[in-house]
Amino acid sequence: MKKIAAALNSHDAAALKAVFSKRAVEKATDLDARLANLLSMFPDGGVTWKRDGGVNAQGSTENGKRTQMLGAVYKLTADGKDYFLFFADFTINELSDPDNVGIYGLGVTPWSDNIDVGPMDAFLYWGSKIKYDESDADGYPGVYAGYDNTALSLHKMADIVERVSSQDHLGLREMFTEYAQAGRAADIDAGIDKLYALFPKGDIVWQKKGQQTAPVVHETGDKGNETTLLLSTYRVTSGANDYWLAFAYFPQNASDPKNEGIYAIGVAPRTASGDSAAEKALFSWTDSFDVDATTPPGVFISQ
Description:
By secondary structure, the protein is an alpha+beta fold. Helices cover about 30% and strands about 35% of the residues. A hairpin with a 2-residue loop joins strand 8 and strand 9 (about 240-255).
């Protein structure tokens, strides 16, 4: 961490690149450009840091040989702003490549106390997917590339499907924004019960990356002070039943931080024509949402 901080403060891209493992340098996408982008986050240097939590170790030992990767998180401060830094470091790698020792993945994102939504959520997801055996493509090597709205939508959809499939009522309700829960808790609870009744056995299959349309994005505010609303619609199936599942999601909300998270979820039976009364009602409901949250939050079951 001392080497990373020194490179950030001196804007030394070569020194920062030198901490990466040989394999990370070979496999990373646009490493030089992403290093430059990382350094641009700290134009005046002055980075101070402290560890935030413990160190996570993963690895394997076979026939007396060992591979170990350590994951560490730090809180950085520069120019009065706080950031979250994560790196995954091969400290020893005797099983796959003894020369492949060093940083495998490094990323920085603006600090947020709410780690369950938006940029912080996407960042921590990337870090959690970095594996010592490189078994998860979502945990790519090199420098964290940041997030895009499609990735945020996919990640949140996966969370919704997991909770609906397991009939986790409390888990799904807690995904809703604090604002939504405070104003319409009883309606949300009743809506979740109706939603779960549509999927009593779970076994939900849904569109994955590359199969869905990008979310509709409504955004206001300057960079670093944005309010963003994502409106996403996915096709889901459970057994022989086919549905549309839509949701309104505030990944960041500078105008009202208590309104970050899932704002609304809606479901309608899917037809081949796509223009049934239930589908039209769902699509109209989804289109009604805006960054000012003028449409009430909750769960909408269109049948």
